[in-house]
Each structure stands twice: as structure tokens, then as C-alpha cells.
Specification:
Elements: E1 3-9, H1 14-26, E2 32-36, H2 42-47, E3 50-53, H3 59-68, E4 69-76, H4 82-87, H5 89-114, E5 118-125, H6 134-140, E6 142-143, H7 154-172, E7 185-192, E8 194-196, H8 209-218, E9 223-225, E10 232-237, H9 238-250, E11 260-262, E12 266-269, H10 270-280, E13 286-288, H11 292-300, E14 304-305, H12 308-314, H13 322-339
Parallel strand pairs: 1-2, 1-4, 2-3, 4-5, 5-7, 6-14, 7-11, 8-10, 9-13
Antiparallel strand pairs: 10-12
The structure holds nicotinamide-adenine-dinucleotide (NAD).
Length: 340
């Protein structure tokens, strides 16, 4: 008999770190299977039932996992983030789309074999939106899930398409089969804003100028910010993002009318970031040296999101607003990190 477990791909990443810690703290008996191309650190390894160094493109390895485990939930975090996907679009597409397809297939096979739904948690992004210019963006204000859906980056297009794939696997998978299967993929996606973690360094997202500013200031390093002071994006601290994933996973299916949800916490300019960082690190030095091409990408992402659907259907609520995030979560943790 297969072992019941939860699979986390991209386990060694920023979200993976926090997610494994939170999941295993809430339920120490949960069997977490962690997969990443890079080995996870010792502390995380001890929290997992099995850790695998492997590639989501390796279908032989995925078949082996399917033979050993009966996954109840899959958190599919592995991805090539926006900056790298824009430099290497074919690689971005392969990992972000074909890789996701491999995991959706795993979930579909397992749900059909067991007759029980497999929850598939997918971290989408505000990159799935595409606004034509900064004026339209600022006029649009809080965007809803079904607005401005012409993504402009390879990463955003990949995320948007995977949301569509999720809808296919959730509702229409092999719809012409004469007999429908009892179990299906229960696809649930969140369009995350830029995430800020105090414990892990950002790894090449276009919204990373905010967290990078803080990590540079904490180390006494000057930071060259690639967007202008006025650049505005929605952000959220990592703890809230992880709570959202866990909350959506736990939400009763009958309450959910959508497969993709916005969630928000605070929307700030790059200057507001700098100002709050100077409050805690008075010597912080940021040079605003906009890179016109990267700025264009930021300009195509919404300034803020409408998350009323998530609030209504699964009780989403952020814990940290902008000032509380720095005062109580980011600054104490980042100071501790660099004082070591
Ligand atoms: N961090 C953010 O601000 C943010 C915002 C929106 C959405 N997301 C999404 O959340 C997810 C996790 O993001 P993160 O910030 O933890 O990113 P990250 O880059 O820190 O982590 C991604 C992990 O995936 C692994 N990975 C990459 N290619 C792989 C492959 N082929 N096989 C197996 N593992 C592979 C990497 O080694 C890395 O550990 C991603 O899907 C990302 O698109 C992140």
C-alpha cells in the first residue's frame, strides 16, 4: 500500500522553507516529501519524511514517486522566476509549463486511481496581469482576477497558462472518456503579490527590489534600485503568503467558486520602501537608477489587487500591514540574520 503524504516541489526556495516549517509545526505527523534540484538544508531535511534532489522534468523520478506515495496535496512551487525566464524564455517555458504539466499529470493519475481528489496548490503571480502602461495601471487601482489578463512576460504568460491548465485538469480532464473518474485534481491557485522574507534572500523576481533594499541596508551595503521612486506594486510578507496557502488548502471545496484568487496586504512605492528602511537603518543608501526595460515590466503589473473574492470565500485576511510588517516581523528577523 502507498504511503499518504504531501508533496512540495521547489522545496528549497523562499516559500518552500517557510511552508515546510509551518506545515510540520502545525502537524508534526504529516509526511512531507520535498523535491528540489538543490538539496534542502539539514534543518528542513529533519522535518521531511523524504527529500529528493531531482528535476520536475524527470518523469521517471515522478513515476517512482507515484509508485511509493499517495499524495493528498501537492504544493507545486518549483519555477523559474521572472527575471531569469525573461533572459531564457525557452527554459522558463519548459520548467514553468511542461514541469507543471508533469505534476498535474501525477495528480490526475493518483486521483483517478484512488477515487479521491488530490489538492493541487499553485502559486501564481501578479505577473499574470498585463497593463499597457503606467498611466493605465495607476488609473486601474485594485484589479480583479478577470481584468487585464494579457500578460507581457514569459513568466507571466507561463503562470496564466498554468492557471488555465489547472482549470482543464480540475473540470475537463479527458472529458470525452465514456466513463468519468471518481477523483479529480482539485486545483487551487493564488496570485501572489511581491513577497518579502526576512530569512531567505530573494532570487530573481522582478518585485525583488523591495526585499533587496532591506537585505542590502541590513548588511551596510549600497543598493542600486532598478525602478524609479514612484514604482508601485502590491507586496506581502512571507508569513502571510504561507498562511494563505495553508488557508486555501484547508478551505471546504463547497465554499470555492473560483480556481484562482488574488490576495493583497499593502501597496507601496519604492520610495516608501526606502523611507521605512531608513527609519531602522539610518545609514541605508539606495540609488534610484531605473532600468527602463525592467521598469516596463513593473509598469505592466497592477499597483494593487482586489482580493474580495478570497476574503468572502475562504476568509483570507492578512496579518501584517506595511508598518507592522517591518516593525514586528522583518526588521527583528533581518537584524538577527546579519548579526550572526
Ligand atoms: N517570491 C515571490 O515573490 C513570488 C511571488 C509570486 C509567485 N511566486 C511563485 O512561488 C513559487 C516559489 O517561489 P519562491 O520565491 O520560493 O522561488 P525560489 O526561486 O526561491 O524557489 C523556487 C525553487 O524551485 C527550484 N527549482 C527550479 N527549477 C526546478 C526544477 N526544474 N525541478 C525542481 N526544482 C526546481 C529551485 O531550486 C528553487 O529552490 C514559484 O512558483 C514562484 O513563481 C513567488
Amino acid at each position: 500500500m502507498s504511503t499518504k503524504a504531501v508533496l512540495i516541489t521547489g522545496a528549497n526556495g523562499e516559500i518552500g522553507h517557510g511552508l515546510i516549517t509551518q506545515l510540520t509545526e502545525r502537524n508534526p505527523n504529516l509526511r512531507v516529501v520535498a523535491l528540489d534540484v538543490h538539496p534542502v538544508n539539514k534543518e528542513l531535511k529533519e522535518r521531511c519524511h523524504e527529500t529528493i534532489v531531482g528535476d520536475i522534468m524527470d518523469t521517471v523520478m515522478i513515476d517512482r514517486l507515484a509508485a511509493f506515495y499517495d499524495f493528498q496535496s501537492i504544493y507545486h512551487l518549483a519555477a523559474i522566476l521572472s527575471t531569469k525566464a525573461e533572459r531564457e524564455p525557452v527554459l522558463g517555458h519548459r520548467i514553468n509549463v511542461d514541469g507543471t504539466l508533469n505534476l498535474l499529470e501525477l495528480a490526475a493519475r493518483q486521483s483517478r486511481a484512488s477515487g479521491e481528489n488530490v489538492k493541487f496548490l499553485f502559486p501564481s503571480s501578479i505577473a499574470a496581469y498585463g497593463l499597457p502602461d503606467v498611466e493605465t495601471k495607476m488609473r486601474a487601482g485594485k484589479v480583479k482576477e478577470d481584468e487585464w489578463s494579457s500578460a507581457r512576460t514569459m513568466y507571466g504568460i507561463n503562470k496564466k497558462y498554468c492557471e488555465d491548465l489547472g482549470r482543464y485538469y480540475n473540470w475537463y480532464y479527458r472529458q470525452t472518456d465514456p466513463q468519468s473518474a471518481a477523483g479529480h485534481v482539485d486545483f487551487r491557485a493564488i496570485r501572489f503579490p511581491g513577497l518579502i522574507s526576512a530569512v531567505t534572500l530573494p532570487t530573481g523576481g522582478t518585485s525583488d527590489y523591495g526585499p533587496e533594499m532591506m537585505h542590502f541596508a541590513a548588511q551596510g551595503k549600497e543598493y542600486n534600485c532598478f525602478v524609479p521612486e514612484t514604482a508601485t506594486l502590491p507586496f506581502m510578507v512571507m508569513v502571510d503568503a504561507i498562511n494563505a496557502l495553508l488557508q486555501l488548502e484547508a478551505a471546504p471545496a463547497k465554499n470555492l467558486t473560483a480556481l484562482v484568487y488574488n490576495i493583497g496586504a499593502f501597496s507601496v512605492t519604492a520610495k516608501e520602501f526606502y523611507d521605512v528602511i531608513k527609519k531602522y537603518f539610518p545609514g541605508a543608501k539606495v540609488n534610484f537608477a531605473p532600468d527602463a526595460l525592467r521598469q516596463k515590466i513593473v509598469d505592466s503589473w497592477p499597483a494593487d489587487v482586489d482580493d474580495s473574492l478570497a476574503k468572502r470565500e475562504w476568509g483570507w485576511k492578512h496579518e501584517y500591514d506595511f508598518h507592522r510588517a517591518f516593525e514586528e516581523y522583518l526588521i527583528p528577523a533581518v537584524k538577527q540574520r546579519y548579526q550572526k
